[in-house]
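Next comes the chain:
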Amino acid sequence: MNLQQRTTALLEVVETYRARRCVELLEPAGQQAREICRSALAAARQRVHTAIEEQRKRMAIELSAAEARLATERRLLVQRRAAATLAQAWAQLRAALHARWQTPATRARWVDAHLDRALRALSRTPWQIHHPRDWPAAEAETVAARLAARGITVHFVEDASIDAGVRVIAGNNALDATLDGLLAERAAIEGRLLQLLGEVNA
């Protein structure tokens, strides 16, 4: 075997060793690389899943907050509309009641209805009836005659603070059927107005 053949044989041995050694080193490295890739992919998937879940939670919280703000805005809008409606209705109610007092027929019904209440509620001691300055004397005389028939004496008092209605006083008790007296329970009246408006709009 000459030098050329020995060199070739030696190179073949070296190449065989190199190939075998490469296989021995590359296969575990490839397996380790595949494990690293699988692990990295699983970790990445977990991070993506966690990020998505956190984003969903954030979005749910933001959506809930937005819905709460919207509900609050809707309530405030309803309240503002109700307040505006009540302000307008209150002015119309006062005007309508005042108009009833200015009309003789409805004024007479007003006085009669509240005199009936006073007769049921107040004692028969002498009465004072406070009234507006422009209440016709003839109507006051009719009231005095009606009460005299029931054994009640009455003294009429002009009251500049009253622009509609009457206030009946007997001893320490009073029945306030003036415009302001009838509208004194504003919260209750507004509640009833809202109820009536709701029934009309239903």
Remarks:
- The longest strand covers residues 165-170.
